[in-house]
Amino acid sequence: MKNKLFDDLPKTVKLSTEKWLYILPNKGEGYLLYDPINEKEMGRILMNDADQWIYDGELLNVYEAEEVAGAITGHEKEMEELLKSLKEK
Predict the structure, then answer these.
(1) pTM flag (> 0.85)
(2) Which has more pLDDT, 66 or 10?
(3) What are the residues facing 35 on neighbouring strands?
(4) CA geometry: angle 68, 72, 77, nearest 5 deg
(5) Beta bridge mates, 65
(6) Secondary structure of residue 13 in the 3-state scheme
(7) 11 contacts 5 by C-beta, under 8 angstroms
(8) Could you please report the per-residue DSSP string of 6-47?
(9) What is the arrangement of strands in the sheet containing 12-14, beginning at the earlier edge strand?
(10) Highest taxon of the source (predicted)?
(11) Smallest Cα–Cα separation from 2: which of 22, 32, 34, 25?
């Protein structure tokens, strides 16, 4: 997968749960997630060539992992709309 992080995506993401995470390219096919406030690793987002992702960690919930994956893959806007629609239900 082409490393999009330094081309057009943010290096930092603020989640809807008010958490701030650094997204750092990891050697291989994923990204390391780091909480700069609490100074701890939050897991990794692993990516394959088809831009499919999996969260490798236990500290983020499903929605937070989807937000981070959306920021990495460039689907952040769609994720924001999906989260808004889920909150309205």
Answers:
(1) no
(2) 66
(3) 40
(4) 75
(5) none
(6) strand
(7) yes
(8) HHHS-SEEE-TTS-EEEEEEETTTEEEEEETTTTEEEEEEEE
(9) 12-14, 20-26, 30-35, 40-47, 53-56
(10) Bacteria
(11) 25
How far is residue 42's CA from residue 55's CA, in Å, rounded to a whole number? 10
Exposure string of 2-33, with b = 16+ CB inside 10 Å and e = fewer, is eeeeeeebeeebebeeebebbbeeeeeebbbb
By residue count, the chain amounts to: 89
Give percent of the chain above pLDDT 90.
39
9-51: pLDDT as tens digits: 448 889 999 999 999 887 776 899 999 999 999 999 998 777 6
CA–CA distance, 16 with 81 (Å, rounded to integer): 12
